[in-house]
Structures are given as C-alpha cells and as structure tokens.
C-alpha cells in the first residue's frame, strides 16, 4: 500500500492548481491545503515518521473532493489522504508528539 501510495503522489509537481478549491486553505498554515498535505505525506512515507502538527493538517481535511478535478497529475487527493490516515492509525507511520531539539 505504501509503495503504491508513494508512486502515485510522486507525480505531484507542486503546481498548486489544487489549492484554490480547498475550503481549509483559509486556515493559513501550509500543511492545511491539498498541496501541503501531499508534501507532508511524501515526507512521512519516505521517513516512516511525521509530526503531530503535520498529522493535524492531514486530519483537518474534510474529504470533500473539491481539489481532485484540478490535479493535472490525476492524483486522487482525498483517497490518498484517507489511506494515509489509515497508515497513521495502524502505526505504519510514526508520529513525533514533541519537538526534537
Ligand atoms: S494539483 Fe496535483 S500536482 Fe499540483 S500541487 Fe496539487 S496534488 Fe500536486
Ligand atoms: S478533499 Fe481535503 S484537501 Fe481536498 S479540497 Fe477537500 S478539504 Fe481540501
């Protein structure tokens, strides 16, 4: 699952076309947009680790699907987010709950 997911999101060019459609983009933080979420997921899958702030960005997705038609790479962004949430829940990806200094 992780390999297939990573292959799919590796097609992301970070063009940002998905950004304007996302209702959570007004939450300001970079991770709270589709592009930010994809970026977070790429990093987390490669390192098998993410941060609590990044996880908050992922779990704030409404799964509304508004971003999906705008992706020229054909990435099914809400499904990717849903699958990543599952990986976090089953602890396939670890979550740092404290800042590392
Ligand atoms: S539209 Fe697709 S390729 Fe562009 S930033 Fe969003 S997820 Fe990545
Ligand atoms: S599915 Fe998630 S990332 Fe996509 S537009 Fe909706 S809230 Fe934003």
TrEMBL record:
Gene Ontology molecular function terms on file: iron-sulfur cluster binding; oxidoreductase activity
TM stretches of this protein: none
Chain ranges of the 4Fe-4S ferredoxin-type domain: 3-32, 51-83
The protein's name in its UniProt record: 4Fe-4S ferredoxin-type domain-containing protein
Organism field: Archaeoglobus sulfaticallidus PM70-1
Pfam short name (any one): Fer4_8
Family annotation (InterPro entries): 4Fe4S_Fe-S-bd, 4Fe4S_Fe_S_CS, Helical_ferredxn
Coiled-coil ranges from the UniProt annotation: none
């Amino acid at each position: 699952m992780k390999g297939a997911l990573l292959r799919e999101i590796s097609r992301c060019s970070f063009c940002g076309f998905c950004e304007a459609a996302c209702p959570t983009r007004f939450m300001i933080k970079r991770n709270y947009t589709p592009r930010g979420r994809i970026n977070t997921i790429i990093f987390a899958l490669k390192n098998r680790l993410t941060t609590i702030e990044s996880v908050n960005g992922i779990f704030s997705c409404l799964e509304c699907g508004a971003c999906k038609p705008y992706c020229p790479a054909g990435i099914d962004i809400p499904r990717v987010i849903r699958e990543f949430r599952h990986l976090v829940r089953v602890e396939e990806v670890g979550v740092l709950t404290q800042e590392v200094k």
